[in-house]
Amino acid sequence: MNYKSIVFREFTQESLQRIKHYRQEEAEQIVSKQLQQQTIYEDDTNKKLHLNKLSKDKSIESNRTPNKELAVGQTLPRVLQHRFPSELIGKPIEEIDSYYRTQYVFVVVDRSHTIFRFSATRACFIFSPFNCFRRLAIRILTHSFFNTIVMLTILSNCIFMTLRNAPEVTEYIFTIIYTFEALIKFIARGFILQKYTFLRDPWNWLDFIVITFAYITFFINLGKVAVLRTFRVLRALKTVAVIPGLKIIVNALIQSFIALRDVAIL
């Protein structure tokens, strides 16, 4: 894979202008192809020539796919790790995969050179990519210390859930920590409307359910609705979302089960 054309630049207002320029170029190409297609029916003498040209354009467009080595959660290839500027670690940079260059997205690379991708639109209609609060939230979210704290919180919560007479205050403490985690993700990513936002990741659905039912249990008498206590067990599954390697394994298992289901149907 040739990575010589990749340039690492901090995401700025000029970056947004470049995205708009790429989108305009793509729109012009689409219009041009539509005109070519119209010419096919208008010019019978050159019909075969236009058909061949159009088929080539379509084949080129269909071959355009994302680079798997630059996907979310992947580690930056070694060739690029040596070139990556240390001052850009944890900061929004321009898209490094040409497949996404016409999309309003930006990339963040952490200290372990793991790739994160975010929407370049306003998060929750408030926080722009250049907002200081959003940049701070992104810095926190992509830092390894943040994942460590969340992981320790989940493990501690699992231990307290096994205790018969655990203090009630611990439930409030864990819920506050989970709420803070979700708020960081809301500010950094946005909620649901755009790509790469909080609820666009199925693993974050679990976080949302856990927090929602935690607050429900605070206001509903669990003596009458004891079934809500079972939702606390879902917190143990949050470990899958926190550990990247475990997430990959679980995703692979899910895909395998889906494939086995299709085979069984056949």
From TrEMBL:
Keywords: Membrane, Transmembrane, Transmembrane helix. GO terms for biological process: membrane depolarization during action potential; neuronal action potential. The chain crosses the membrane at residues 136-160, 172-193, 205-227, 239-260. It holds the Pfam family Ion_trans. GO terms for molecular function: voltage-gated sodium channel activity. It is a multi-pass membrane protein. The keyword Nucleotide-binding does not apply. GO terms for cellular component: voltage-gated sodium channel complex. The keyword Thylakoid does not apply. This is Ion transport domain-containing protein. The lineage of its organism: Eukaryota, Metazoa, Spiralia, Gnathifera, Rotifera.
